[in-house]
Each structure stands twice: as structure tokens, then as C-alpha cells.
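Ticket #4471: structure output looks truncated?

Reporter: J.K.
Steps to reproduce: submitted the chain below (198 residues) through the standard prediction queue, then opened the result file.
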Amino acid sequence: RIGRRFLNAGVGFGGGCLPKDIRALQARVSELGLDRTMRFLAEMDDINLRRRDRVVDLAVQVLSHTLHGAPRRAPNGGAGHTPDPVSVQVLNGARIAILGVTFKPDSDDVRDSPALDVANRLYTAGADVAVYDPKGNANAAARFPRLDYVNTCEAALQGADLVILLTEWDEFKALDPTHVATLMARPTIIDARNVLDP
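Returned output as attached by the reporter:
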């Protein structure tokens, strides 16, 4: 059931099925008293959630350097952690463009979306977050209405200090880096799906 395209390195997997199925299998294994034999399931789920933390931490590192001139490392507080003071200080007022909030391309599904979770964490830590997804904006807005949803990629990129590519839509893979740089305040991209040609 797990196709190759869902195992690409990056911000992690999400959706309404695989994460739920992993947790259901963990619960059943526990009921059968076989926790030790299937310990890797819990670790796999934890690693997947830590990928989201890594993207947020990377955004803090990049913005600390580009906006404040001195690289600072924000501590990783684990999945769903409360923003630490360094992160809040660095992210406060920074404009971040989020490209993609669905958990996979060619879908409007935002269930357990790593992308939407990252966008919300950045907003919670004080960033001005502009979100664009070709199909997922409406569903994402229903879950997290406080984010700034825009109707075009260019609108998201306009004046951004940082862009984070979080869903591997073909539209984002085809972006012209020269044009993107003219729209942004600081031409810096985190490719959290590893789909752009460096």
C-alpha cells in the first residue's frame, strides 16, 4: 500500500490513512503484548513527526542568519513543542511564503498534513505566513483560518524573507529561480520535499 512516492525524504508523510494505520497497528500490537517486537512502529511515527520540527528549526536558523546576521540554533523541543524564546524572537514579523499545504500533490486533502502543521507552528511563533496551495487553500483555511491564504504563487512570494516548499506540486517544481528572486525580499528557499534542482 505504501508506494515509492510516499517514501521520499523531506518533511514527512501525513494524510488520513498511513499515520492512523501505523497508530492502530501499534495499539493492536500492544493489546497482544507484543510491544517489544514492534517497537520500531513507535520510533517510525516519532521520526516522522520530528521531520516537522526539523523544518521549523531550519527556518529559524536561516532567518536568524539572513535577518539578524548571527546564526543561532533554536533547541528542538519535540513534536508539537511550544515555540522557544529564540524562535519567537527570530520569527517575529518575518514574512514566510508556504508553498503547498496538502499532504500530497494533486489533492485537496490536508488531513494530518505535515505542511499545514509547519505553517501553523511558524505562525504561532510570530511569523507572517502567506500560504498558497493550488487545491488545498479552502480545506486548510477551515482548519487554520488565521493563516494568510493567497490565490497565486506570486502573491505568496511577494516580499517574502523565506519560502518553504512543503508539497511537491508540479507548479512549484517548475518555478523559475530568477523570477522568484525578483519577488522576494530575500531570495532564500527551504526545499522541504527535495524536489528542486539545486
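Triage note (M.O.): checked the attachment and the full C-alpha cell line is present. Residues 92 and 126 are 4 Å apart (CA to CA).
Status: closed, working as intended.
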